[in-house]
Amino acid sequence: MDQLQEYTTPRYFYILPAKDYNLDILDSDQHLFRLHFKLYFLCDCLNDPEKFHTVQYEGYSIRNLKEFIAKYGQYLQITLNFVPLLISSKEQIRNTTTVSSNYTDNMKYKLKFAQNFLYHPDVKRMYTDFLSNGKTSSQLDPIQAVDFEELENYLIRNDPTVFLSNLYRIMTGDGQIRWICQKDYDLV
Q: pLDDT tens, position by position, for the chain (188 residues)?
């Protein structure tokens, strides 16, 4: 992910359901794209993936979920695989002062729901078909196929003064672009 050429938008993000949906709702195909999801960014903490953490922001509602999933579904599968590790780590969510076990359980449930949603056959087929565009899966690199430039077009901004969760774009000494939170920015 660090080798991606586009640096205008943070590369580390994931989705969670905005409400506490029952997993059984995923069995009803007609409701899949009526669900409300929010997008959250991660602070990528200056070359130390073990210190990645969620950014303290209430998340962005996603506009046109069906099209968003078609473009970013496979990428979201990848990022959702390492978010549970952050939640279960000893630091958990670094920007919150107290993390109750109820909150952590709720986050784990929402992550499981998001993963099940992305692996639902109808949803998975949608982003697989979108990426293939006549190419075989061996010709595609799901990370390289992500168009980060368009990401902000799918995010509903409730507060016009906050964008990209107030992450700061910086360049490290080795030339890598990182998107970090205010706390890490102040340390730099």
A: 444 445 677 888 999 999 989 888 888 767 788 899 999 988 887 666 677 787 877 889 999 999 999 999 988 988 888 787 776 654 444 444 455 677 778 888 999 999 999 999 989 988 887 766 545 444 445 555 567 778 888 999 877 777 788 888 888 787 778 888 888 888 87
- CA 47, CA 15: separation in Å to the nearest integer? 23
Query: CA angle 76-47-17, nearest 5°?
Result: 25
With a threshold of 0.85, does the pTM exceed it?
Answer: no
Whether 1 maps to a domain, the answer reads: no
Number of domains making up the chain: 1
Residue 54 lies in a domain: yes
Q: Do 90 and 49 touch, CB atoms closer than 8 A?
A: no
Kindly give the residue spans of alpha helices, DSSP state H, lying in 34-187: 65-88, 101-119, 121-132, 182-187
CA dist., res. 117 & res. 19, Å (int)? 14
The answer as to whether 86 is a domain residue is: yes
Which residue segment(s) compose the domain that 30 sits in? 13-187
